[in-house]
Write a structure and sequence with these properties.
The strands form 3 sheets. The protein has a 5-stranded mixed sheet. A two-stranded antiparallel sheet has the order 1-2. It has a two-stranded antiparallel ribbon with strand order 6-7. It contains 5 helices and 9 strands, in the order E-E-E-H-H-E-H-E-H-E-E-E-E-H. The protein is an alpha/beta fold and about 150 residues long. The protein is globular and about 40 Å long. It starts with 13 loop residues before the first strand and ends with a helix. It has one domain: Glutaredoxin (3-Layer(aba) Sandwich), CATH 3.40.30.10.
Length: about 150
Amino acid sequence: MAVLKEGSKAPVFKGIDQDGKPVSLSDFKGKKVILYFYPHDDTPTCTIQACNLRDNYPALIKKGFKVIGISTDTVKSHKKFEDKFDLPFPLIADEDKKIVGQYNVWGEKQFMGRTFNGTFRTTFLIDETGKIKKILDKPDSANHTAEILAAWK
């Protein structure tokens, strides 16, 4: 898999969201997309990030953005996460790790002296033509919306 860069065409994916509905990047053609990958539902940093996007969702929608979250958790886990925090955007379950593979956000990580494979917290800003406008590696979860808006200029 080629390394994705700003200006590259965003890989088209298909997945199932927390409501069991199919979601594809092609559903958002002609829209600005915030595609954010996160490690796990209902963990401290992932919750801060999701709630930051939720709290600023009206402003993002007003600016024409669509928000999609992706992790390797299950549909059931996503549904609990959505319900617990009243998240207004689709969360795609990538249990087979196909999408994280397409976007090169799966690999070896270290946490508290332990090495394991997991999802790298990464956000892709995709323009109306389907090209990657900006890649935010290691986004600031508590200030994610401000970071996105600043990066889109």
